[in-house]
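Students often ask why we bother predicting the structure of a whole assembly rather than each chain alone. The short answer is interfaces. A chain on its own may look different once its partners are present, and contacts between molecules only exist in the joint model. In this exercise we take four input lines together and write out one structure for the complete complex. Read the inputs first and try to guess which parts will touch.
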Amino acid sequence: MSERPKIKDIAQRLGVSPATVSRALADTGLVAEPTLSRVREAAKELNYRPNVSARNLRTRRAMAVLMVVRDVGNPFYLEIMKGVEAAARAAGYSVLMGNTENDPDREIEYFDMLRDGHADGMILMTGKLPSKPGSHSEISADLPIVVALEMIEGSGFPHVQIDNAAAAGQAVRHLVELGHRRIAHIAGPLPEAMSVRRLEGYRGAMAKAGLSIPEGYEQRGDYLLRTGQELCRRLFELPQPPTAIFVANDEMAFGVIHELRRLGRDVPGDVSVVGFDDLYLSEAFYPPLTTISQPRAEIGREAMTALLDMLSGGDGPAEPLILPTTLKLRGTTAPPKN
Amino acid sequence: MSERPKIKDIAQRLGVSPATVSRALADTGLVAEPTLSRVREAAKELNYRPNVSARNLRTRRAMAVLMVVRDVGNPFYLEIMKGVEAAARAAGYSVLMGNTENDPDREIEYFDMLRDGHADGMILMTGKLPSKPGSHSEISADLPIVVALEMIEGSGFPHVQIDNAAAAGQAVRHLVELGHRRIAHIAGPLPEAMSVRRLEGYRGAMAKAGLSIPEGYEQRGDYLLRTGQELCRRLFELPQPPTAIFVANDEMAFGVIHELRRLGRDVPGDVSVVGFDDLYLSEAFYPPLTTISQPRAEIGREAMTALLDMLSGGDGPAEPLILPTTLKLRGTTAPPKN
DNA sequence: CTGAAAGCGCTAACAT
DNA sequence: ATGTTAGCGCTTTCAG
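Now the answer. The structure tokens for the assembled complex follow.
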């Protein structure tokens, strides 16, 4: 037990060939019963584990997938990672962590890791493809890649996502139904697809309700807390400030609420706020945040499932997989003061 | 450019041997100048990337590390992961995600992944070693493992952590200095080392201040939000409820504050609360949470640095590496009403 | 400084 | 049903 045993050790010990051991351990029904059990026992006894590099080299598969996000530090990804990890584990895959921080070089690097055998497939949660300067590496649509959460239009990759526009519309409709007419929107970073969709959902719902969007009611943010504060302040420097704000993500919404408090406005008494994402602690917030909830763990799971399908020869879902969102009615929305 | 080029392709194209190409690409100063540049150019031109499985098999290293946490879904780990990832990347390592969910089988599995060449080293953030039933696999202290955040006493592995007892003491002292005398504690899951230390810090500071700890003032929790609520309620069913609570982590602290609000007690007017961790959104909370801040990114970075040292033959830090904490004074503590 | 040759540990033809 | 053989792509002796 001093050295790592190899297949050969088991074979010699049992007087069979390495191939037989390999086959027995792989559970191909190709090994007969006296031998089968003996091999298994010997393997257990020696505490044998196959060398993955050797196996990967031979089989040309790494049994690993790459999960690439824009920022591992963002709590938003947590449950997705969890879903991906669980589905991957269940299928015997391990998960490599990728973090681009929107750096094109790093984005390219992760694509390269696919080519060089680090991983067999990739779940991409960045909103775009790396633009390679004068390079080769065509990013062909038949790479085993699934785009989750975000969308990369025209890329040809399978997508797992939500209907951002519809969800945004639902959020705004809720405010309209409460009686709000002056509803502002703090958007994400434009022109990223996700932000654009949420903005479109806002505009659509406003139009459908016959409400106009005054100058300055559409603020462009970047999903960060401080920006929420900042843009909220700007909204309340307007001649006619809004009575409700639909914010493109929870984190900025927290910033908004923070700022409203500083400005002496009560939430939801004076101003209603709706977020988007339903972060881990949004419910524990005060007031508990009314927000759009995404099925994050499920997004992760479905993305991994689609990827596994592709890895075993499938094409993945041809149409984008759209998962349902729900509006969580909590404590930051109320009818306007009058 | 249709097939992945291998070293042999470059060699043939240039009329040199594969060995030379390998050496040139590896930047051993063993290849002379006319050849060196030609190889590099050809490699770039063909967009060559070495096959990692083959290389790993040959060199017996995976250039990957395993980062094992109890629950990937916990926001607490985010910045640590970020620190680990950054340090790993900088050294050319990739990071495999491990998630035990306190399942002993899975814990063992990650140890096995070390043996089978999946990864070269491991950063463990679980509080204990897997107890293997009747098994072999001695977990010897010279495995390339660094324990971060948690502590595994007597394991012999290098540790990167904070002084939990001292930090807890500081939190309690702050409350004492504000004038509180009835200070309760909601602990983490005992008898885990981290929770015990924080509890000890609480007790020590209370003793030093000459304060007694009434029956029921020490509640045993599990770091979860709901438990914070639950235990807070229990605290206020006591004949003499506390005027201040030191909670072993932020998440439970949020639960506590939530519950206090339900009970109609003002924070910090009626009751002061101090947390521990300084989660991502603790500052944005209302009221902003007074808490102990850990240098999480740095813990990740230092752990990875220590691991890299071990992987290149070092012993890692002999003494536990203790990183400094700070008490963040924010909005949930005030003098007692009297 | 470069080439030839061996071999990391495994699996997959191909043979028996 | 099992054994024999070859080879995945790379690095590293060992020669020259």
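Check your guess against this: Residues 16-20, 23, 30-32, 35, 54, 56-60 of chain A lie near DNA strand D (CB under 10 Å from a C1').
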